[in-house]
Specification:
The protein is an alpha+beta fold and 397 residues long. The protein has a five-stranded mixed β-sheet with strand order 1-2-3-5-4. Helix 10 links the parallel strand 1 and strand 2. Helix 5 runs antiparallel to helix 6 and helix 5 packs parallel to helix 7. It is elongated. The N terminus and C terminus are likely disordered.
Length: 397
């Protein structure tokens, strides 16, 4: 991302929250961050090994057992966040982790009870919710049973942490699965919307051109048959063909104009995306009140918003931008007002550019006005168009 003021590359967050991974490196980094949080519980076993309270054989065996335990844990959780193992293999790895934790605690002491927290995390992160609801308490029970032999007090201190992180990982896993399903559903909805738009376009073209082209074909055949013996009647058919074709051309142009007409709601959504992508903090209304607003006036406001946002992104160097769509009562009647205000420099031009001049002309055609200029802490553009009153909208005026 480029800083609009300095033109230098702006560094984003190390792990973007709420966004899908952009590449394989981003995915691996996210996995390491989420898995590395729980490595804090290794401090007690590592300190016990370094303290020298065990024999050389015990220290070597403990180091080897801890290495195998951490390797199995990382393989299980790391793989489960991408392409997961089969359910049977997951259960086998969890049983191996439980056995290693029990053996290490019984042979090396209570300092190793924290390994059961990893078993709980693995159960919550890799098992289905119904299985995790049983496996996490079972892991806590196993820790209490082992702790009763090596350190009852530490086991009681860890039981609450073990249950909390186990069930927390169950919730996180469920949230991740739900997020993935929502992304798939959103992609499906977008695809269905695109298909529906194509079907609507096909229907409209059929309705517009089907009758006209059929009539042109019929009259062309009639003109061809009449041409040798009745040239005057053939000429009349050709004139009818010209009239029908001209009307079809007018209908197509009106239809295309309707398809190309910008909508204010769509431009507001696009403005939010464009400003956020440029690193500008955006405040954009989600659902403006457009009741009773003529289509031409809405299109002009949409063009004004597009031009204003383009200027903010390209020229202003702004850090913040606020968009408002409000109804106001003026001496000339009710108006719908679009306001775009930023805290940037407003560009380097000394006069109104071609964009603002074009906007002024567009607004004048629908009876609107445009105001643009410097304000105390930035630049502000205000476009106003006539709007129907609430009574007019309610009465169907």
């Amino acid at each position: 991302m480029t800083d609009p003021l300095t033109g230098e590359a702006r560094r984003g967050p190390l792990v973007p929250i709420g966004q899908p991974p952009r590449n394989q490196r981003d995915m691996v980094l996210r996995k390491l961050v989420w898995i590395g949080v729980w490595l804090v519980f290794l401090s007690s076993p590592v300190h016990d090994l370094v303290a020298g309270d065990h024999s050389t054989g015990g220290t070597v065996a403990g180091s080897l057992g801890l290495t195998v335990f951490v390797g199995a844990y990382l393989a299980l959780v790391f793989r489960n966040m991408g392409a997961p193992f089969s359910p049977r293999f997951v259960i086998v790895l969890i049983l191996i982790l439980s056995a290693l934790a029990s053996v290490l605690c019984l042979t090396l002491g209570a300092a190793w009870l924290g390994l059961f927290c990893y078993v709980s995390v693995a159960c919550g992160a890799t098992l289905p919710p119904r299985g995790a609801y049983w496996a996490v308490p079972a892991t806590g029970g196993l820790m209490l049973l082992v702790g009763w032999r090596v350190g009852p007090g530490m086991a009681r201190d860890l039981i609450l942490i073990l249950l909390l992180i186990g069930f927390a990982m169950t919730g996180v896993g469920q949230l991740v699965r739900t997020t993935i399903e929502l992304r798939k559903a959103r992609a499906t909805v977008a695809q269905l919307a695109a298909n529906e738009e194509r079907l609507r376009l096909a229907r409209d073209l059929h309705d517009l051109l089907g009758h006209s082209l059929s009539l042109i074909t019929l009259k062309s055949e009639l003109a061809g048959r009449m041409l040798p013996g009745h040239p005057d009647k053939a000429a009349q058919q050709v004139a009818d063909i010209e009239q029908v074709s001209r009307q079809a051309l007018v209908d197509v142009r009106e239809a295309v104009s309707g398809y190309r007409r910008p909508r204010l709601a769509a431009e507001l959504a696009g403005a939010q995306v464009a400003l956020t992508a440029a690193g500008v903090v955006a405040h954009v209304p989600a659902e403006p009140d457009l009741a009773g607003l003529p289509e031409d006036a809405e299109s002009v406001l949409a063009w004004a918003l597009r031009e204003a946002v383009t200027n903010v992104v390209r020229h202003s160097g702004a850090r913040r931008c606020t968009v408002e769509v409000l109804r106001r009562q003026t001496l000339d009647g009710p108006v719908l007002e679009l306001s775009v205000e930023d805290d940037g420099s407003g560009g380097s031009g000394k006069g109104p550019g071609n964009g603002l001049t074009g906007l002024t002309e567009r607004l004048e055609k629908v009876g609107g006005t445009l105001e643009a200029g410097r304000v105390r802490h930035g630049f502000r553009l205000v476009a106003r168009v006539p709007a129907a009153t609430a009574a007019d909208v309610g009465s169907g005026a």
